[in-house]
Amino acid sequence: MKIRAFITHKISEDYSDCQDRFSVDRDNLRIAVSDGMSQSIFPEWWAELLAHQYTEKGTCNEEDRQNLCQQWHDQVMEYLHSEKDKGNNPWRLENTINEKNGAGATICGVTFKNATDWEGQVLGDSCILIVDKKSGKVEIHTSEDKPFDSYPDYYESFVEKQGRGKITSCQGSIDPDHVMLLVSDPFSEYAYNHRDGIGNFINIVLALKDHNDFCEFVDNMRKNENLHNDDSTLCIVEFDNSLDFNIEYKDDIDKLIKDENDSRNEESSNTVPSEQAKGETDKNEKINPCQEGNEPKADGSPVTCTVTQGGKEMPLEQITSRKVEEISESQKDLEALCQCVLNDLDDLRQEVINCINHALKANRGSGKLKLIGKKRENASSNSKKCGESIKSVIENKFETFRKAVETQYNHIKNN
Length: 415
Known about the structure:
The chain is of the alpha+beta class. The protein has 10 helices and 15 strands.
């Protein structure tokens, strides 16, 4: 088998934000892809546990999930304690854990039994695709029995809580005329929408050689083919009449994150001088006092204060102005970001309240309560009280969060 595996993040995010994970195990002849769900905590850790569970053991059923839950919980608690040891107060994370709101993730995995036959497991919109190279027709292996949407089947990271759906087993074979793809949801959705033929897509996929090729391909797909903007993982398996895994290329998410951080640190060191560097700069810097009453220069410009820096004389006003502009722009960016968060929060709060008001109004006037007399009045009254209580709780939660954001906003603005 010829194997290539790629991963990249959403637009405007970093690799450290990426919640997809994949695992390729040459010894066990297994590949798995898991997609952590955005609206959960540490979904990338959960996705990594699920992917490695499959490639190590060949299964990722409900019993396996329950065993993995404790590993995920231990990892989260270790992080929580480390934050407290640093003097931080991760109260929001602590509340989330206490309320048992954990992580969610989808998964697909495949095991090769020989040079052509395979068996696998799928849950949610992480899928196994078998593509006919000639016609471009796609065979999609998924646990979903509906078109892909924002509510896929998934595994939950708390033992006590159920996710959605059940993992499904599948099997098949590949040959020189077909290629297997293990993918996360952007490619699953694209394949479903073009399942009668993705010929050009598969031709480009088969030509991918490295990470840069893949990122360029994903960018083009997002711009020109409406590929969903999400973390994107693609594992390609091509038949070569051998059971051995010939891994031609494989992305390493940990290395991508490290390279990204190293690059960011390097940029930071180039723009923010160290204390030693500041000291050396100060030694080589000489401020030349302004001379009042000096005649204008030959070109008519007035005489200004200057700074001799590294043997070069520069106007003090120019240096000061440049630094002030840099600080001002950075602060404007932070203020704008905080203001956007506040505006979005207000909009979201209003949308939720509108939905509840609409539901209450519909319930009062629908006449669908099949009760009569006093019972119906009591039921309607209880329903109204329940709705008003929910509204009150939501408003209080939004107001608490808004005050926290506003406090940070005012701190940035005033400092």
